[in-house]
Amino acid sequence: MLYREAGDFKTSYASDNQTFPIRFDRYAYWVVMAVAFLVLPMVMNDYWANSIVVPFMIYVIAALGLNILIGYTGLLSLGTAAFMAVGAYATFKLTTAFPAMPIYLVFLLSGLVTSAVGVLFGLPSLKIKGFYLAVATLAAQFFLIWLFTRYGWFFNYSSTGQISMPERSMFGVTITGATASSTAVYFTCLIFTVAMAWLARNLTRGQMGRTWMAIRDMDIAAEIIGVNPLIAKLSSFAVSSFFVGVAGALMFGVYLGAVEAGEAFGINKSFLVLFMVIIGGLGSILGSFLGAAFLVVLPVLLKILLVDNLGWPADLARHLEIMIIGALIIVVLIAEPHGMAALWRTIKDKLRLWPFPH
Amino acid sequence: MLDQPAEGYVTADGRQIGPVVLELKNITLRFGGVEAIKNISFDIREGEIRAIIGPNGAGKSSMMNVISGFYVPQEGEILYKGYKRRKMPPYQVARTGIARTFQNIALFEGMSVLDNIMTGRINLMKSGFLKQALWWGPASREEDEHRAKVEKVIDFLEIQHIRKTPVARLPYGLKKRVELARALAAEPQILLLDEPMAGMNVEEKEDMSRFILDVNDEFGTTIVLIEHDMGVVMDLSDRVVVMDYGKKIGDGTPDEVRGNQDVIDAYLGVAHE
Amino acid sequence: MSDNVLFAMEAALNGVTVGIMYSLVALGFVLIFKASGIFNFAQGVMALFAALTLVGLQNGQIPFAPIINAAFGTSIHNFGWNLPSVVAIPLTVLVMIGMAWLIERIVLKHLVNQEPIILFMATIGLAFFLEGLGDIMWGAEVKRLDVGIPQGMSSWVDETTYNLFGYGFFIDTLSLYALGIAAVLVTGLVLFSQYTKQGRALRAVADDHQAALSVGISLRFIWVLTWSIAGIVALVAGIMWGSKSGVQFSLSLIALKALPVLILGGFTSIPGAIVGGLLIGVGEKLFDFLMQPVIGGATENWFAYMLALVFLLFRPQGLFGERIIERV
């Protein structure tokens, strides 16, 4: 089967608007879904699940959220990790306050709580732009983390200052806590990732996504043709924070199990998610997947290669990783400001014409 | 011009011109100490093509910005459909049925032609946030209905072939046309065109003139036009306002303006020998 | 005077020490921003890198020793000599100039005409790269830096204040030196930009890129020049901070604090950077001192950003910046 759209005629606007206009892509999508839901859980061991697949999926959700803010709306945020912390602490407070609440609902509500906090810190975006806004989000980063470590109410006055996830189950399956199986964790993350990606896709392809992009590309013109900047920017903050909050909730609830705000959600995590978005591709859903995959796998690869095989000290590998990521950011911005996703698109465009490129 | 009846009239080429739809009264606009517009009044009738001309820096674009709500004048008032327009942000002005294009193209460069034009329908689409998020029934159906309307505009302006092209890749002339399409997609009652033909060659100008006339003719859209090409202005417009140094120095039919001594001195005197 | 007022005054004076550091980093930001419109996130890491290089040169460390040792199983560390500061500092200046040249060549040249936000993100990448490079080149452990600036409490301040108020203030001698050096640096920069040919070109570029190009000013030269000057300013900041608390990673976090400083002072104002730095330094110490009993300590973490946020809402152009009129 050749990779092309010729012969695949669209007879309605609905079919022209679908996510994967090329037949081959549609098949590829179903194959990926089948592998993710049926094959991977059978073949994957715990090491793979815990060190790569689960963090990858959680970071995908966070990157999708940040991408909506930066890539689609053009609002720069350096406070992603703090909003993840909001999701995590909301999950902790909700589960401990309402033990009977279904855990998936807790995760979603945590996203909504983060949404509200995000809107609050997004308010300055109505008056300030570009890297000025970065400062507003830095305020969120440092203030929220300070709040969570300073006030006992947030961590239920535990002596360590940590929050730890109690055991919760749904449909008789343990999902959180120490006894949760890696399969349960995997499926939880998978369901959320697929659902969130689908939401992101719907929001960005409709009128809402267009108003975000209009604000990104030329905010003054957008306002003159009828985009309400207040609603566009705040809705972007709300949606973005919802995603980031759910990612934080999952990070704490099913992945880490116990966290301390300053350690798990420091400024470096904000940068990590930002880099996923830049390397993967600004303004691209696929990019959020590629960027997250790349930056989750890179340290693991470097560790296996340098530390396990060559016996280098671990901190040296860590420094090398920082250097590589920094260099990559620059290379990506110079060569292809739209990241890996744009590279992928170029390859597909070439493939569409292959083997007759002229 | 004063002898035209208030309720409207029919032009020589058979178009129906209605009563006054937008009236600007004693508008004064200042930037700091500079007066960009000095006490200007004029009106725009329903269905007419109204041109604003004048040398560079005369305040034409500022006038356009006042009409579209981007600048708020310090003095004077705007009557729209008989009512005084209260102070409102530009996006609300857009909702009252006023759409515009820009002197320096203001398209959304990162989006496709189709998305740009769809954005023009922002105030006509109603689906709420949740429906869009779930892409169920109403939202997806609405998207398709509006897509159909947008396709009509695309056909009308003959830009079918670039529908899915990112705007950044288009040549200048086509960008201007896409911008017109985006404004038209809003189905405006008044369309403001800020130098729609600047930087175009003769052929492109002819195309654009034809589109402007067609829009006016087919949809009955009122058009306010800023243009430097005198030939085009005199051909297209029903009435012309002439500005110089922020003041109004002439107002009337193309013929009246052509004969106005102030206008000849200030502006046309150089262009017509 | 009551004790509390005295303590508050002492806290404020200590804020000056930190504030000068913020000012110095912010100064580097302003220089680069004026000349190229680039918001250089890497300024703080440049200070770290400069300090690491200086220490490395002084101690005769072999560059990249950690990675060479790991790769070849060797165990080399030092050349076995120690360079005096008078030699090591000029050498470090040369390194910083070389780095400016490389940054222009490898990074900036390819990003001309990109949007500011892309350039900003590129400098975030640069910051991470330099951080990793510094650690790999010179090792990541905290190092002592001594270029001969006297350390410890200033007995002069102690005695004077004791005689005045009956309570001796504790102030680092180093901060007094830092204050002096910052003043000299700013005066030098102002003189340079007012009275030299390059300074004039610099101001021309800051005013209008296109116009400057059209009269034959080489933009690339100007960029290398500003990044070099910013590198030297970073070295000064690195020496100050390194002498006080050792050369370590925390230095690069100062870069983040410089952001609010710039918002207060305005992105294009050299005096603004200095005043803004001092305001933030003093402000956060005072705020912490006053609010500690009420909301708890460690407010320095966020005070600067919150202050900047409030500021942005009411005076987006900063204390000394010019107002921007938007056009279509």
How is this structure best described in words?
Chain A is mostly helical. In chain A, 73% of the residues lie in helices and 3% in strands. In chain A, a hairpin with a 2-residue loop joins strand 2 and strand 3 (173-176). Chain A is globular and about 65 Å long. Chain B contains ten helices and twelve strands. Chain B has helices at residues 60-67, 90-95, 113-119, 129-134, 137-156, 172-185, 202-219, 230-236, 254-259, 261-271, and strands at residues 9-10, 16-17, 20-31, 34-45, 49-53, 75-80, 83-84, 98-100, 190-194, 222-226, 239-244, 247-252. A six-stranded mixed sheet of chain B has the order 8-9-10-5-11-12, sandwiched between helices. In chain B, strands 4-3-6-7 form a four-stranded antiparallel sheet, with helices on one face. The model of chain B has no long low-confidence stretch (mean pLDDT 87). By secondary structure, chain C is mainly alpha-helical. Chain C has a domain at 33-256. Chain C contains 13 helices and no strands. The model of chain C has no long low-confidence stretch (mean pLDDT 83). The interface between B and C is small, with 8 and 2 residues. Chain C: It is found in: Cell membrane. Chain C: Keywords: Amino-acid transport, Cell membrane, Membrane, Transmembrane, Transmembrane helix, Transport. Chain C: The chain crosses the membrane at residues 12-33, 45-65, 85-104, 116-138, 174-193, 221-241, 261-282, 294-314. Chain C: GO terms for molecular function: transmembrane transporter activity.
Total number of β-strand segments of chain A?
4
Mean pLDDT of chain A: 87
Low-confidence stretches of chain A: none
Strand content of chain A: under 5%
Helical element count of chain C? 13
Number of strands of chain C: 0
Order of helices and strands of chain C: HHHHHHHHHHHHH
Order of strands across the widest beta sheet of chain A? Answer: 1-4
Percent of residues in helices of chain C comes to over 70%
How does the helix and strand content of chain A classify structurally? mainly alpha
Quick structural gist:
The complex is a heterotrimer of chains A (358), B (273) and C (328). Chain B is built from 10 helices and 12 strands. Chain B is α/β, with parallel strands linked by helices and 273 residues long.
